[in-house]
Amino acid sequence: MKLTERLLLSVLPWVGYLLLKFVGATQRTRVVNLRAVHIVFAKHGCAIFAFWHNRLMMIPYIYRRLFGMKDIVALISSSRDGEYFVRALKLFRPYIVRGSSTRGGSEAFKALVRRIRQSMDCIITPDGPQGPRYSIQPGTIALARLTGIPIIPVSYRSSRYRILKTWDGFILTLPFGKMTYAFGEPVSCPKDASDSQMDSLAETLRQSLLATSRLAGESRPLEVEQEQGEGRVPV
Hints:
This protein is an alpha/beta fold. It has helices at 3-26, 34-44, 59-67, 83-90, 107-117, 138-147, 195-215; strands at 28-32, 48-50, 72-76, 95-98, 121-124, 151-158, 161-163, 171-173, 178-183. A hairpin with a 7-residue loop joins strand 7 (161-163) and strand 8. Residues 224-235 have low confidence and may be disordered.
């Protein structure tokens, strides 16, 4: 690794971390349906939090703000491109698993199951790491089936943002906006669920994520992609 790259890997994560804290601190924040999370915590001790990949930016910040230093595991792509984000994310002190979740039981998937069974919360993007955008990969439902822990949909909407030209239309949240975070109703998967039941639950989760986005204040379908622009609805 070149000296320049080593310096960037040392400095940029801290810059990203401080910027996230700054953006979060300058937002006028509202949280909707936090009750759903407390109900799951009271019954199970932990939860699987699912959100679209393009809304990844502010999730670590709001998790720590709402739930303090509760143990959490995060699944992050093992690609080299994700290294800067991983190092910034580590400053929020989650347990990091590198890889992608699959129904077949990759090492990353098995590590997630172990951590959740230790009562760690889990954050996961059902359409990550490469899409298709707004789809539900089977690993998310499989996690719920194997651990018995419900999935809680999460979304947010800010009044100030940019949409990047990435595969997921990544939402870059800007400071000094009005922010609404929303939690959806939990989605559970029986441990004896068949493949067809899991496919049905994947669609249920997708629809719940869409509904949670509307709960956060989005007024148009996620399938309607808009041009990049500050203050426009990011859907």
